[in-house]
Amino acid sequence: MEGFFAKLIRRCLKYGVFKSVDDQKAVIDRFIAEHNETEAKPFIWKANPDEIIAARNRGLQTFKSIHQSASKLIGAFLPQAVCLSNFLFLFY
Fold first, then answer.
1. Has residue 44 been placed in a domain?
2. CB atoms within 10 A of CB 82
3. Mean pLDDT, rounded, for 13-19
4. Do 58 and 84 fall into the same domain?
């Protein structure tokens, strides 16, 4: 999406002079129509959903392990802060 809008700005809007909002809309509509005819390609999903879910689960497991380690460290050095370990971890 960012590339599309960058191209729209670079080709049509950056140095354009528009007498009205309707003029600007017409230029944008013409750009979109031309883009759809010449450059548009359907999006093809290439990622394997199982790999995405596995990566998410690994990240969550790592996060939980870090959180548990941080809680133990805070508890060892600041016994009174054990109950606040979840709160303190957010600001670590």
1. no
2. 13
3. 84
4. yes
Per-residue pLDDT band for 69 (boundaries 50, 70, 90) equals: confident
Please give the residue range of the domain that contains residue 24: 2-38
pLDDT score at 82: 47
- On whether both 21 and 53 belong to a single domain, the answer is no
* Torsion angle, alpha carbons of 4, 5, 10, 15, to 10: 150
Query: Is the pTM of the predicted complex or chain greater than 0.85?
Result: no
pLDDT value at 90 more than 60? no
Residues 6+ apart with CB under 8 A from 28: 8, 12, 13
Nearest to 85 by CA among 75, 38, 63: 75
Maximum alpha-carbon separation in the chain = 69
Q: Are 81 and 74 in contact (CB under 8 A)?
A: yes
53 and 85 housed in the same domain: yes
Same domain for 55 and 84, yes or no, is: yes
